[in-house]
Design brief:
Length: 79
């Protein structure tokens, strides 16, 4: 029998007037972090951190979608 992990959607909505945002939540499964920042070159840099026993799907503004497991994940979208 396959065990299914709880699944979290990550849908960041960056805005150039903010330049940077970070949110952390101490969930029952553990600490979840979502962070984005505009780089000097205009690219968007994303960082997501998930605890063990949690999966997520990150849908980025460039239309890409990434399935994530535990750990810290980095992505860049061209500006």
């Amino acid at each position: 029998m396959t065990r299914h992990l709880p699944h979290l959607p990550l849908l960041p909505q960056p805005h150039p007037l903010l330049r940077f945002a970070k949110a952390e939540w101490q969930s029952p499964a553990g600490r979840i972090v979502s962070r984005w920042e505009y780089g000097e070159d205009g690219d968007l840099h994303f960082e997501f951190t998930l605890p063990e026993h949690l999966a997520a799907t990150a849908k980025l503004p460039d239309g890409t979608s990434h399935t994530l497991g535990a750990g810290t994940h980095h992505f860049v979208c061209g500006g």
